[in-house]
Specification:
The complex is a heterodimer.
Chain A: E1 2-3, H1 21-33, H2 38-57, E2 62-65, E3 72-75
Antiparallel strand pairs in A: 2-3
Helix pairs in contact in A: 1-2
Chain B: E1 2-6, E2 12-18, H1 23-47, H2 52-57, H3 67-74, E3 80-87, E4 90-98, E5 114-121, E6 135-136, H4 138-153, E7 159-163, H5 168-174, E8 178-182, E9 190-194, H6 196-204
The chains are: A alpha+beta, B alpha+beta.
Chain lengths: ~80, ~200
């Protein structure tokens, strides 16, 4: 098997967004701490947001569990 | 575009990697893959060999995977990407990856990675299922695509997967992925991860 060429699988579109200083700070912090570009952070956020939305629409709930205490808390999405 | 070796003709053939999997691939699965897999499963049932060991021996451990249903269920969901390898007018391999899972290996815990959820090669390419497999390396083409996708996403080429027992040697010995042991939350299948360093080495080789 020899890889020769690799072409993009889907067309990309450009979006210009305006963020507040606080929002940009969060984006930069996440970008640094996750070692991802800002675009990659936003892509991951969109994937996660959609995943939560789809599962909520299917009637599922979102819980956070404390690993040590095993205490569970539901994240209420309205 | 990639090159696959046709083991029967001895020729190298151009193959195409497409994403996402399309109706053409699902139709090929339904008309060409599934009857062969179903026939082997029926044969194993009749002979009393329909066990995990029997399925492993005959290379049909994934025969129960419902690719068409998964395609419908996951369509349009950004956390999933799917790929098909096409060659010789047929779909030779299929793969689903997930882009939201994080690493478990202590050296890269919680880092982003590409998780390989499902990867299969067409029945006629499988040793132990057919006497003379047609194309060699279809699975490797797809795994390589997952590593490249991980790199493109900014995940450093890191990948992870749960291996069916019959495929473990490929991930451990050929791809030299790290074995993290059986996962009690995933049918006790062994979980493997490729580190960033290994991904760089693999892509450079």
């Amino acid at each position: 098997m020899t890889a020769t060429t690799r072409t993009p699988t889907s067309a990309k579109k450009t979006l210009t967004i305006v963020l507040s200083d606080a929002e940009m700070d969060v984006l930069e912090n996440l970008s640094n701490s996750r070692s991802l570009s800002k675009v990659a952070v936003l892509r991951q956020a969109l994937r996660l947001y959609q995943t939560i939305d789809v599962r909520q629409q299917r009637g599922e709930k979102l819980f956070f569990e404390n690993e040590k205490s095993k205490e569970k808390a539901e994240l209420m999405l309205i | 575009m990639v090159i696959l070796q046709n083991l029967i003709s001895g020729q190298e053939e151009e193959a195409e990697i497409v994403s996402p999997i399309s109706e053409e691939d699902i139709n090929c699965f339904l008309s060409d893959w599934q009857p062969v897999l179903k026939s082997k499963i029926d044969e194993l049932r009749i002979s009393g060999e329909y066990t995990s060991a029997g399925c492993r021996r005959h290379n049909v451990e994934d025969a129960h995977w419902e690719w068409p249903a998964k395609m419908i269920d996951r369509a349009g969901q950004l956390q999933w990407n799917s790929y098909a390898v096409r060659c010789g007018g047929k779909t030779q391999g299929l793969m689903f990856i997930n882009l939201l899972q994080r690493c478990r290996h202590p050296n890269q815990a919680n880092e982003h990675m590409v998780y390989i959820d499902l990867v299969s090669t067409a029945p006629w390419n499988r040793p132990r299922l057919v006497l003379e497999p047609t194309y060699k390396g279809v699975g490797l083409v797809l795994i390589t695509e997952a590593i490249l996708q991980s790199r493109d996403e900014g995940f450093g080429g890191r990948i992870g997967l749960h291996a069916l027992p019959g495929s473990e040697t490929v991930y451990r010995d050929k791809l030299r992925m790290e074995l993290l042991g059986p996962d009690p939350n995933y049918q006790n299948l062994n979980y493997f991860e490729m580190t960033e360093a290994r991904a760089i080495e693999f892509l450079g080789s």
